[in-house]
């Protein structure tokens, strides 16, 4: 009863959106293709470094704060000074994404910053383990693990291998869209003992999926076309939110053309399911769990890094032939774990109920 009340508060006191789905990139109306994207303005900071003052740097500091590179306890009234705080954030970002660690805003760093990405932060409490590649020990096979987990390594209970998922009814998704989600879930069930079944009972489903626009009640507001695409919470919350303002493409064919704003839906869904199952971000650019994805890019196949990570949590599927060595990285300090969720919204009245309802 209490859990149902919580879900009602979170999903039904905000207005869901009828998301934009297109069968292919050529069907996207020109009116929905922007000339610039949310973070394109950051390109003006090229070459900026510590000691300078550049108009607009305060917005870049907000970006880094959103993804954990600047502490949430820092003042939100940022200045345009390239100070030690910003330099430290830039350096940590460069390390996480395997860029040249200079602390300056060079071409490669800015090109990466403006990419669309998952809304889950990379750093919490000043600690990041995204770049946590650890060589295997006691083996002649040279393997490096880049996968990570949420704090305390949460997962679905061992007794619960049959998970259900449902879609927010007000989104009125077509069967084609729902079947795409089904394919994405299958990619994870192929390498684990887990199974996923759609149910019509939204409140009773283990995994609840919804498309929203802007502020939708969980403290992680969406920002329109590109920018942050989606976010999901660690088990056992099972909350999976996508930005309804994106131009979601269904067929993933980007060979002939690639509009600036086209986002492959299945690629994003496969990534967020990884979070729902307990994986954090990976520093392996080829991995599904890498935080960013370019518009017009399709990436849906699990890599060895993704498979090693998920099998650390659940073991392998009885039908899986995957037998590469399993490595244990440190936990990712990702801010979408349940404990962080409670702390983040401590002063936000109605959302304070999240931790209370879910853990009674």
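Sequence proposed for the structure above (360 residues):
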């Amino acid at each position: 009863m209490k859990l149902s009340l919580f879900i009602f508060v979170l999903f039904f006191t905000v207005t869901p959106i009828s998301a934009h789905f297109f069968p292919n990139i050529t069907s996207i109306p020109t009116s929905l293709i922007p000339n610039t994207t949310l973070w394109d303005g950051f390109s003006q900071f090229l070459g900026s470094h510590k000691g300078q003052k550049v108009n607009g740097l305060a917005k870049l500091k907000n970006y880094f704060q959103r993804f954990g590179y600047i502490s949430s306890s820092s003042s939100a009234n940022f200045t345009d000074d390239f100070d030690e705080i910003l330099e430290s954030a830039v350096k940590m970002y460069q390390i996480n994404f395997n860029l040249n660690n200079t602390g300056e805003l060079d071409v490669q760093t800015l090109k990466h910053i403006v990419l669309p990405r998952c809304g889950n932060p990379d750093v919490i409490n000043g600690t990041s383990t995204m770049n946590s590649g650890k060589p295997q020990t006691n083996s002649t096979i040279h393997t490096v693990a880049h996968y990570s987990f949420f704090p305390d390594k949460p997962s679905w209970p061992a007794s619960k291998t049959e998970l259900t998922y449902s879609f927010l009814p007000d989104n009125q998704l077509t069967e084609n869209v729902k079947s795409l989600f089904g394919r994405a879930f299958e990619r994870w069930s192929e390498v684990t003992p887990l199974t996923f079944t759609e149910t019509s009972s939204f409140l009773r489903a283990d995994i609840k999926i919804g498309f929203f626009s802007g502020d939708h009640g969980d403290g992680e507001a969406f920002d329109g076309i590109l920018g942050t695409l989606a976010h999901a919470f660690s088990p056992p919350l099972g909350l999976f939110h996508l930005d309804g303002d994106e131009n979601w493409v269904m067929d993933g064919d980007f060979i002939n053309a690639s509009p600036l704003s086209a986002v492959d839906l299945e690629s994003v869904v496969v990534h967020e399911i990884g979070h729902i199952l307990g994986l954090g971000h990976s520093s392996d650019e080829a991995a599904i769990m890498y935080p960013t994805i370019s518009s017009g890019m399709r990436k849906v196949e699990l890599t060895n890094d993704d498979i090693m990570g998920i099998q650390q949590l659940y073991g392998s599927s009885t039908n899986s032939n995957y037998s590469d060595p399993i490595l244990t990285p440190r936990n990712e300090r990702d801010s979408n774990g349940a404990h962080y969720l409670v702390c983040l919204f401590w002063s936000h009245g109605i959302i304070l109920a999240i931790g209370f309802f879910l853990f009674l």
